[in-house]
Write the structure tokens for this entry.
Amino acid sequence: MVRLNKYLSEAGVCSRREADRLILSGQVTVDGQRAVPGMQVTDSQEVRVGKKVIRRKEEKVILAFYKPAGIVCTEERRERNSTARFLNYPVRVTYAGRLDKDSQGLLIMTNDGDLINKMMRARHFHEKEYRVTVDRPVTEEFLEGLRKGVHITDREKGLDAVTRPCQAEAVGKCTFRIVLTQGLNRQIRRMCQAFGYEVKKLVRIRIMNIRLDGLKPGEYRPLTAQEARGLYEQTETRTDEGIS
């Protein structure tokens, strides 16, 4: 809830002092009732100045969220383990780029639909970085196969594609780092399966300039002003040449 004079000010109607004058003069109503000084309102209530309905400008929210394994990226309200239910954020936010239920790591959650649309445009080659643990030792032959591109198919999902060339390097005996610029259905799991590997753990650790650093499963934080600025700058930049 927010004080009515602040609500009117944030909606661009007038200053808080002038809002108080409007309220005292009887020109402001809330849900059809004359407003009184000092009252508080929510965004779900109808606020009018005269006959004009006033809507507060929605503040843009961008969060870095560590999705735990088992949480589902979905807008379906009936899903008990959905990202929205788990996050329970006071402003409605949604994800830009899914992670499957068994995977974990970084999600960008926001109420900025334009930003989501730009992040989801595959032709922009936005980088997403993952740390992947598999069921047996990682070999250079396996990594080179990933780098060159892998033919993956799934008739039920209508998937038949060759993945884009990517970056991949070993970071442990059974763990590797991979940077993708596309987001096909269960892409990394399918790429590994093509070489006889099974993914045991998959964590997304970076989306463009935003990193998972410092977050634990289930935690979230607002982006810093510098992070948000960098994210907007990258989504405005078209890079059709792929990975350099």
